[in-house]
Specification:
heterotrimer; A mainly alpha; B mainly alpha; C mainly alpha; A: mainly alpha; 0% strand; elongated; B: Cytochrome C Oxidase, Chain A
Chain lengths: 204, 541, 93
């Protein structure tokens, strides 16, 4: 008689429920974005044109690839190819770090131009411009925080694969970390066009 | 009262660890429920004292016991504690944790460790919220709603309070995730969806709101926090922001949150009424579906808190219409409780009295809600003490009384001992009278035009305010008597058998208090519905 | 156990990854062509298509039971309602 029975489907379902909360968390920012975009389309267009689409596109590609490698790692683990699985996990972490490094350069360029939440430059610029960049920093900042948490999560699971605690028989922790990582990717799939692509089409 | 000892103590003495660590590191859903219950009662008493202080200040015009700043801080902290630390977790986290797995025939929730984590989040959030009173620039004075622009500008310690509320939200989310997964995955053999006790249905609907609404509060509070740090001006109209958007985001969570508060209370009442009427719950599926309908419709109506905020007329129209829709499933519930009572064999035991008071007060609160939901009358009533009276009728007269009903109904199951009935009935009477005197006066004086949230008022409002304050004393006396009586019952009440009330749900078929892992060596197999009283006899005590 | 997932082949993952990358490229290209709300809706539709691919293949939703899909449906409704009803205020002020 023990309550320590395993329910992998239950664990995955719980993870999905948690992911719903993440979506709602970001959708709060999306609500703000949509409303402000509707009010200041021209300011948003000008501000969005100031973002670096090249880095943005590159980062989209990096993140999509990291999702691929982590998915491959799950298949490798399920097929009991532990070495491959570990390799793919490490690749994912590497790509995630690249994403953050790119983000760092992107942010520091903007900050060096005096663009950051609460800066004097933004206080003097058009109201929609300030709102755009505030939302940009808050959204990508929150997303970056999630990338960081994801890195920690994947490293932890990698350690558990090495120690045999996560294995072909018991893959659910890796599967759940993968779900989390894909969600972070999924959010970026919307953040990228919302901030980098769509607003610049509204020149009025 | 005779001193009797229980020769059996169930899960209180069983478990892998003994002593205090056995509680602080427990993953047993029953112990976590008890931990929650203890904290919640303490929080309630603290906030009740603050509430009494508010009423005392309002006993006469002008400064009575505190000035404006202290008054603002008092009602803010009263609200924060009552809402985030008492009502939201009250029935869900305390009774839900204890009873949900037993009700569905499971040995624990799906994620026991997460469950413990959610309690620690509750404690951490609670400590931060309380610390905000004594540190920084003084207790927050924004009201529990943290409305911008004031909340981003006040020098009081809003930072710590919103951080605390954020962590409390996390606790609530974890409980919600746990409950939805548990209900889907851990039902015993034969426990079909149609055999779930109504309490479980309401917890299920509640858990979905906790999952899908609470993160919106999280992001809103984070934004207030960031605004205070950076001064970015996202909600500052002068800098391209929009303060009304804050209100949208806030109420997208906080209106569904009132259903987090009331739905479990409705579940409690749906358990108590059939048990003491000895009749199956009338309209089982209507009750189950209306719980989900309340959860869904409750997510569509948030902006009815904002008719006077300056949002568009079209939005006022749409939200006013949607608001009336929520009344339908709520009314279905009230009618079904009444129909359950009809021609029942009614026993007016203490839990039943509290449940009946719930129906009465919730109905009054609900009707007041229609007056506020209609845009035309709301413009007159907005920000008056009618609103305060209204939400105390639903939240305290509803959810609060359901919590007390649950205490009287299930404490014998939790502890294995029965409290004395006569003091319980007297306490109930005091509370019922005090409650209605207090909040009916507030509603009346609100209709006359007394605004809320001021420490002072015009002399013509004095008579009703005096009556309200006297009502608050009667209410408080009743509450203290109730808790004293329950405490005495826990300490040295008469031992009860498995089933003191003659209930038909699973918890009444196992010992009181339940053993570790709830059911014996074999998992239970369910063969009948939760309100099938045929052959169920109450144990003598 | 019937509810266990079958491993997805490396090949299918690669195909999905190629599709996702191509769609992102497509979005960048569309954004460069023209502006306005029609373009915005097309871009969002493409992003939603990407989201569908990630959900169903990368996140194994196509192997999960109905319970999982119902949850997503509830989530999407709530998000749509939050944004939609807020627009009822902001657009008509």
């Amino acid at each position: 008689m023990s309550i320590e029975h395993r329910d992998d489907t239950g664990a995955r379902f719980g993870m999905w429920l948690f992911l719903y909360t993440e979506v709602i968390l970001f959708s709060g920012l999306f609500v703000l974005f949509a409303m402000t975009q509707a009010r200041f389309p021209e300011h948003f267009a000008a501000a969005s044109a100031g973002l670096n689409t090249t880095i943005g596109t590159l980062n989209t590609f990096v993140l999509l690839t990291s999702s691929l490698t982590l998915s491959l790692s799950v298949t490798a683990l399920q097929l009991n190819k532990i070495r491959q699985s570990l390799l793919f996990c490490s690749g994912t972490v590497l790509l995630a770090v690249i994403f953050l490094v790119n983000k760092y350069f992107e942010w520091s360029t903007e900050i060096s131009h005096g663009i950051y939440p609460g800066s004097d430059h933004l206080a003097e610029s058009a109201p929609g411009t300030a709102a755009f960049f505030n939302l940009y920093f808050f959204t990508t900042g929150l997303h970056g925080l999630h990338i960081f948490i994801g890195i920690v999560l994947i490293l932890t699971v990698t350690g558990m694969i090495i120690r045999g605690k996560v294995s072909a028989e018991c893959p659910v922790l890796l599967v759940n970390s993968t779900l989390y990582w894909h969600l972070v990717d999924l959010i970026w799939i919307f953040v990228f066009p919302l901030f980098y692509l769509i607003p610049r089409g509204f020149h009025g | 009262m005779t001193e009797t000892t229980l020769n059996y103590s169930g899960f209180y003495t069983e478990g892998p660890r003994k002593g205090i660590l056995g509680w602080l590191l427990t993953t047993d859903h029953k112990r976590i429920g008890i931990l929650y219950l203890g904290c919640i009662v303490v929080m309630f008493l603290i906030a009740m004292v603050l509430g009494l202080a508010i009423r005392l200040e309002l006993i006469a015009p002008g400064k009575t016991i505190m000035g404006p700043q202290a008054y603002n801080a008092t009602f803010t902290v009263h609200g924060i504690i009552m809402i985030f630390l008492f009502i939201i977790p009250s029935i869900v986290a305390a009774f839900g944790n204890f009873l949900l797995p037993i009700h569905i025939g499971a040995r624990d929730v799906s994620f026991p460790k997460l469950n413990l984590l959610s309690w620690y989040c509750y404690v951490a959030g609670g400590l931060l919220a309380i610390a905000s009173i004594f540190t920084g620039g003084g207790a927050p004075d924004t009201g529990w709603t943290f409305y911008v622009p004031f909340s981003t500008q006040t020098t009081t310690n809003v930072n710590l309070a919103v951080l605390g509320a954020f962590i409390l939200g996390f606790s609530s989310i974890l409980t919600g995730i746990n409950f939805v997964t548990t209900i889907h995955r851990l039902r015993a053999k034969g426990m079909t969806w149609g055999r779930l006790p109504m309490f479980v249905w309401t917890l299920y609907a509640t858990a979905w709101i906790q999952i899908l609404a609470t993160p919106m509060l999280g992001i809103t509070l984070v934004l207030v926090f960031l605004e205070r740090i950076f001064g970015a001006g996202l909600f500052d109209a002068a800098r391209g922001g929009d303060p009304i958007l804050y209100q949208h985001l806030f109420w997208i969570y906080s209106h569904p949150a009132v259903y987090i508060m009331i739905l479990p209370g409705m579940g409690v009442v749906s358990e108590i009424i059939p048990t003491f009427a000895r009749k199956p719950l009338f309209g089982y599926w209507a009750m189950a579906i209306s719980s989900l309908a309340i959860a869904f419709a409750g997510s569509l109506v948030w902006a009815h808190h904002m008719y006077a905020s300056g949002m568009s007329d079209l939005a006022v129209l749409v939200f006013s219409f949607l608001t009336f829709i929520v009344a339908i499933p709520s009314a279905i519930k009230v009618f079904n409780w009444i129909s359950t009572l009809y021609k029942g064999s009614i026993e007016l035991a203490p839990p039943m009295l509290f449940a009946l008071a719930f129906i009465f007060q919730f109905a009054i609160g609900g009707l007041g809600g229609l007056a506020l939901g209609a845009a035309a009358s709301d413009v007159h009533l907005h920000d008056t003490s009618f609103v305060v009276g209204h939400f105390h009728y639903t939240m305290f007269g509803g959810a609060g009384f359901a919590f007390f009903a649950a205490l009287h109904f299930w404490l014998p199951k939790f502890t294995g001992r029965m409290y004395r009935h006569k003091p319980a009935v007297i306490a109930w009477g005091l509370m019922f009278v005090g409650f209605n005197v207090l909040y009916m006066s507030m509603q009346a004086v609100g209709i006359q035009g007394m605004p809320r949230r001021y420490y002072d008022y015009l002399p013509e409002f004095q008579a009703l305010n005096l009556v309200a304050t006297v009502g608050s004393w009667i209410l408080a006396a009743g509450i203290l008597l109730m808790f004293y009586n329950l405490w005495q019952g826990i300490r040295r009440g008469r031992p009860v058998g498995n089933n003191p009330w003659g209930g038909a749900t699973l918890e009444w078929q196992i010992p009181s208090p339940p053993p570790l892992e709830n059911f014996g060596a074999e998992d239970p197999v369910v063969t009948k519905g939760p309100y099938d009283y045929k052959g169920v006899v109450a144990d003598e005590y | 156990m019937a509810e266990e997932h079958k491993p997805v082949s490396y090949r299918s993952y690669f195909v999905i990854w190629l599709a996702l990358s191509a769609l992102s490229g497509l979005n960048v290209w569309i954004a460069g062509l023209a502006g306005g709300s029609l373009t915005a809706w097309i871009i969002l539709a493409v992003a939603s298509l990407q989201a569908g691919l990630v959900l169903s293949v990368f996140m194994h939703l196509n192997q999960e039971t109905k319970m999982f899909r119902l949850g997503i449906l509830a989530l999407l409704i709530i998000v749509a309602v939050s944004i939609g009803l807020t627009f009822v205020d902001v657009l008509y002020r």
